[in-house]
């Protein structure tokens, strides 16, 4: 009973927050402002689920999700930030980064995917890079989704057991289990050296994913407080003629209706 009540409360609060997110989205589109939200955190923290919750009721033409894979050989030879710049928003857009340029601050050095020289160069350059972004008018918010090691292990075990979730477990996810302490140390250095008034870091407790989503979305809305833009209710024109069933003029095969069985 308590669990059902908690789930009802979550759905109710999430519905209210999605209305406000839709208002925020409408304000961005009307004003031409641009918003970038960076989601970082340990594997299985809940980044993808949070992004899905944020975008669930948004116009798909006004937001983009940037979840970049391993860089190609060409991309590896470019300026490190180059492939991320290509995904920055146009006027009225939201871009949500499911991991970002901060791969080089935590994951890459922990897993040995970059050299010490590359790591140091990145840490020195990223504050200037983000200042360029925000000086151009882009609103930049950065979230770290925090999860304890025992909770992360439970989520890994759940993914391993569920055939529909196994795709979420990459070889890097499994290897990172032995890097928990090192990743924590690198995260602390990242936040310490790249937290700026123009590009702040916010840490959210994600041991309870549903509560974490609510807290993060509520906080995001507080950072961009213009979310009272409602879409006017349209007046539907009067239907001409009598309602008709769907009619297909060309020969086609209908998919069987399972409810007829």
UniProtKB/TrEMBL annotation:
Q: Which Gene3D superfamilies does this UniProt record tie to the protein?
A: P-loop containing nucleotide triphosphate hydrolases
Annotated region Disordered: the residues are: 228-261
Tell me the ranges covered by the Polyphosphate kinase-2-related domain, including all copies: 6-228
Any one biological process term the GO annotation gives:
phosphorus metabolic process
Comp. bias intervals (Basic and acidic residues):
243-253
Q: Which family does it belong to?
A: Belongs to the polyphosphate kinase 2 (PPK2) family. Class I subfamily.
Listed under subunit, the entry gives: Homotetramer.
Quote the protein name from its UniProt record. Answer: ADP/GDP-polyphosphate phosphotransferase
Which species is this UniProt entry from?
Dyella telluris
Question: What's the source species' lineage?
Answer: Bacteria, Pseudomonadati, Pseudomonadota, Gammaproteobacteria, Lysobacterales
